[in-house]
Amino acid sequence: MAKQPRVLVGQVAAITGGARGIGKETARALVREGVKVAIGDLDLELAQKTAAELGGGGTAVRAYPLDVTDRESVRAFIDAVEADLGPIDIFDSNAGIMPVGTFLEEDDDSTRRQIDINVYGVINGAKEILPRFVERRRGHLVNVASMAGKGGFPGVATYCGTKHFVVGLSESIRGELAYADSPVEVTCVMPAIVQTELATGLKATRGVKPTTPEDVAEAIVDALKVPRFDVFVPKAAGVANTVMGVLPRRGREGLARALKADVALIEADHSARRGYEVRAAESDPHLEAGHQPASLGAGED
User: Fold this and answer.
1) Which of 36, 149, 55, 58 lies closest to 96 in space, CA to CA?
2) Architecture of domain 12-281
3) Which InterPro entries does this one have (predicted)?
């Protein structure tokens, strides 16, 4: 017998990097389900605008300052949300950046920034929320990774490494929770290229339809209602991953060429991406306002 979908009405969700893109659409989708939503973002002003936009229907939506690279900031975010809205039921580690450019052209600041946000941001969220979930014996951790966490794509070497980390971390946490007989759920979301600012200037691939942030948000909500670990968006990406997994290396690389996945990122239009990449570079809280990054050869999402 199929599992009955869980009712999400009245639950509390916290979303990192929730002011725009996938985070914003996930917040919107959860609001439709009657979930109280906390949006954490480094850009507090934009987060407040997003909260005001999404909270017009009466469901509680609040904005909070959040620097995912700072564990104390993550703890303060969680404490504030739980004081305002109640115990968190859903924690969505969504914040991330994606510089585009060859590995040898990537400057050290860009490398550190990706690791700080994409790796430590997820670690900090998990380390702060999971003890609360485990103690309450309920809760659902959602880590947004990428199809880049399942393969290596030219033009985003460090990004791929960070997303491989998110997938591996999520799998290990899931196994440890199961070993401890904990009912806490973990979901790892692996979208293909999503039509957000992050994807500006990227080439299209073959065989996988364009994915929108609304598609990813819908898949996340579905996984919250009927819990599952692997969430590929679109589903065809999961099929492609399965096929790739059984092919020898030459076959995988040949298929990647046929799908144009080998050039989708490395042949990006960097002039089109410049606005995004400057904004992503400024996401480093240690940079002074107006600071120009030393190199924009590797764009950030």
Assistant:
1) 149
2) 3-Layer(aba) Sandwich (3.40)
3) NAD(P)-bd_dom_sf (IPR036291), Sc_DH/Rdtase_CS (IPR020904), SDR_fam (IPR002347)
**Number of residues that make up the chain:** 301
Helices 44-54, 21-32: crossing angle, 10 deg rounding:
30
| pLDDT tens figures, 235-255 | 766 666 666 666 676 766 665
What is the C-alpha separation between 51 and 77, in angstroms, rounded?
Answer: 15
| DSSP code at position 288 | P
Q: Where in the chain are the domains?
A: 12-281
- 291 pLDDT band, cuts 50/70/90, is very low
Helix (H) or strand (E) holding 242: helix 235-246
pLDDT score, position 290: 38
Bridge partners of residue 231, in order along the sequence: 189
Amino acid residing at 144: V
- Record the pTM: 0.86
Q: Which residues are catalytic?
A: 159
CB atoms within 10 A of CB 273: 25
Show the CA angle centred on residue 25, arms to residues 44 and 40, nearest 5°.
Answer: 25
Best CA proximity match to 21, nearest among 301, 237, 218? 301
Q: What is the pLDDT of residue 21?
A: 94
- Measure the CA–CA gap between 164 and 16, rounded to whole angstroms: 19
Q: Determine the Cα–Cα distance for residues 232 and 73; give it in Å rounded to an integer.
A: 30
pLDDT tens for 185-208 read: 999 999 987 766 665 656 566 556
User: Which residues contact residue 211 at a Cβ distance below 8 angstroms, ignoring those fewer than 6 apart?
Assistant: 191, 192, 193, 194, 195, 233, 234
